[in-house]
Amino acid sequence: MAETEPRAELDARYSEESATAADWSEAVARLRAAELFWLSTVRPDGRPHVTPLLAVWLDGALHFCTGAEERKARNLRENPEVVLTTGTDALREGYDLVVEGEAVRLTDEERLRALAAAYTAKYGAEWTFEVRDGAFVADAGVALVFRVEPRTAFGFAKSPYGQTRWQFTRK
């Protein structure tokens, strides 16, 4: 498990003089509220793969789901290291976040039911999942569920420009 409050550092090389390191609690609030994330995985031949997806923050981690034969799931079987990003496409406003960690598949049905409820609460009834055989099940089929606990995270403020790095200590 990651500690509750990671060590935060402002990188002065990429920050305006008036910038300060952001609190992790602010980053978590943004992760909870973000609707769209970009997941970066690595293909078996080393090429990157990036795709948009939905994710929920619960119990100190981001969670996402994918079909077992989708490119991202196949990549994760070979290399579980991922980056999840979210933010805005604006240059001078908003805030961007980058979360690095290992995608760990979840199969515990009690935990999956809590995550299914979190998806519905965040994204609405069209994102309702049943839990069966250690996975999400919906009209579109079976989806594997992954947890990404942050190892390192970055926050990019845009007014003033500032880059915060959060480093987590594993217990």
Low-confidence stretches: none
CATH architecture: Roll
Could you tell me the CATH topology label: Pnp Oxidase, Chain A
Kindly, what is the distance between the CA atoms of the first and last residues, rounded to a whole number of angstroms?
6 Å
Rg, Å, rounded = 17 Å
Largest sheet entry: 11 strands, antiparallel
Counting H and I runs of at least 4 residues, what is the number of helices? 3
CATH class: Mainly Beta
Q: CATH superfamily assignment? A: Electron Transport, Fmn-binding Protein, Chain A
What's the SSE pattern? EHEEEEHEEHEEEE
Count of domains: 1
Number of strands: 11
Question: Notable features of this structure?
Answer:
single chain, 171 residues, alpha+beta, Pnp Oxidase, Chain A, eleven-stranded antiparallel sheet, 3 helices, Split_barrel_FMN-bd
Structural write-up:
With 171 residues, the chain is α+β, with helices and mostly antiparallel strands. It has a single domain, classed as Electron Transport, Fmn-binding Protein, Chain A (Pnp Oxidase, Chain A). Strand 10 and strand 11 form a beta hairpin. The model has no long low-confidence stretch (mean pLDDT 95). It comes from Streptomyces inusitatus. GO terms for molecular function: coenzyme F420 binding; oxidoreductase activity, acting on the CH-CH group of donors. This is Pyridoxamine 5'-phosphate oxidase.
